[in-house]
Structure formats: structure tokens, C-alpha cells
Amino acid sequence: MRVVIAEDNILLSNGLELLLTAKGFHVAAITQDVPGFVAAVTEHRPDVTIVDVRLPPTFRDEGIHAAIHARRRHPGLPVLVLSQYVEQQYAGELISDGRGGVGYLLKDRVSRVSEFIDALRRVAAGGTVMDPEVIGQLLTRPAHDPIAALTPREREVLALMAEGKGNATIAARLVITDNAVHKHIGNIFAKLGLSPTDSGHRRVLAVLTYLSRH
Questions:
Q1: What parts of the chain have a pLDDT lower than 70?
Q2: What share of residues in the chain are helix, strand, coil (percent, to 5)?
Q3: CA torsion angle for 11, 16, 18, 23 (degrees, to 10)?
Q4: pLDDT, tens digit (0-9, with 9 covering 90-100), for 61-86
Q5: 124: exposed, middle or buried (C-beta count within 10 Å: 0-12, 13-18, 19+)?
Q6: What is the pLDDT of residue 199?
Q7: Residue 12's closest CA among 1, 27, 61?
Q8: Crossing angle (nearest 10°) for helices 202-212 and 88-95
Q9: DSSP characters for 100-143?
């Protein structure tokens, strides 16, 4: 599985390369800026990319801009954002394009290598992986937003859905029954206007709908 990394911290990028190589990935390129990342994606057509939010020259939001630009040029390009920061506006745009293959993890909260590798593989396969802290910030919406109709419990269920948790895991986390989880998810779908006839994964569509509402 080919990987392109956009990370200006040499120690971190080299560490990622060693880790990924040991886990059977092929690191096709490591870049430190936006032009280098876009060029590497075009050249290597990676199976997944890892991108930091803040890259040279201004160290503000260049990385996530690069990810959005690359996905426009290469629709469906899997992107795992790995950063110390949550860039709300552009992260929402990245996640809500409806194509999947997106993750957003915070560096300081990645506690186990196995979880990181699993997240990377899920993103490469077209899944959506989100750190709960990222979800908490991205899902903050004004009071007039239709999402405000969700109950606190439904918001908890939706956040766990966004992490890719199954019904049984959600039930265990929230100490409720599987039937209760099923009911909450049904309510979420209804309140977000997701018809049973909608194509695709409604669990992902629910999260994307939530993130795309303003």
C-alpha cells in the first residue's frame, strides 16, 4: 500500500516512515510543503496520504488546503489528517465532500500504534475515522441549525458512529441496550432527513450531513 506523507517535522516524518515500512506499507514520498505534496500525489497516485494541517510557509492551514486541492484533482483520494490542531472551517469542507476516505486524528491523542495503523487502513479503504475531540469541535453549530433537534444522547451516538464504532460497541460505551442504540440511530436518520432509500452508508451520510450543516 503506497503512502505519501506531508509533514515538515523531520523526526516525525522519519518516524512515520520507519513505522509504516515495518507494518508493510510503502512510503512513496515524504514532502514538507504544499507544492511537493500535490506533485507527489500526482506522480505516485498513493493508496492513502497522511497530512499535517500546518505546513510552510505560514504554518497556518496549508496542509488541509493541500488535501482539499489534491482531492479535487484526484476525487476520492484517501486523506488522514494527523495534526496537533483542529482547523474547523476547512476540516468540515474536507470531510463533507461526501466521498469518504477521510480521517482526522490529533497527534497528542494517538496512544497506540495499532489504533493508528487500523485508522490508516480504514481511511485507505474509503472509511471515515475521526478523533472524538475533533468531532466535538466540528459538530458545534448555531442554535438555529436543524441538528439542534438531536437529543444529547443522539449526539453521543452520532459521535461514536463518526469514530466508526458498531452498534454493540456503542451500546457498551453508553451502557444501553442494542435496541436502544438502533432506536437512537433511527431517530438520527429521521431528523437529518436521511431516507431509508438513500444509497451509500447512512452511518457515514449522517455524519457528513451533520458536518455540512451551517
A1: 88-90, 96-99, 138-147, 195-205, 207-214
A2: 55, 15, 35
A3: 170
A4: 888 888 888 888 888 899 999 888 77
A5: buried
A6: 44
A7: 27
A8: 150
A9: --EEEEEGGG---HHHHHHHHHHHHTT-EEE-HHHHHHHT---T
At 79 the pLDDT is 94
**How far lies 141's CA from each of 45, 64, 70, 135, 173, in Å?**
36, 21, 27, 12, 25
Q: What is the pLDDT of residue 75?
A: 86
Closest to 98 (Cα-Cα) out of 130, 62, 129, 128: 128
**So what's the pLDDT on residue 208?**
65
Bridge partner list, 176: none
Cα–Cα distance measured from residue 122 to residue 19, given in angstroms and rounded to the nearest whole number: 17
Contacts by 62-66, CB closer than 8 A, 24 or more apart? 62/33, 62/34, 63/6, 63/34, 63/37, 64/90, 64/91, 64/94, 65/34, 65/90, 66/6, 66/34, 66/37, 66/38
pLDDT at 214: 40
pLDDT at position 164 is 73
Answer for the pair 2, 50: CB distance below 8 angstroms, yes or no: no
Q: What is the pTM of this model?
A: 0.67
Tell me how far CA of residue 167 lies from CA of 118, 163, 203, in angstroms.
19, 12, 11
Contacts of 60 (CB under 8 A, 6+ apart): 54
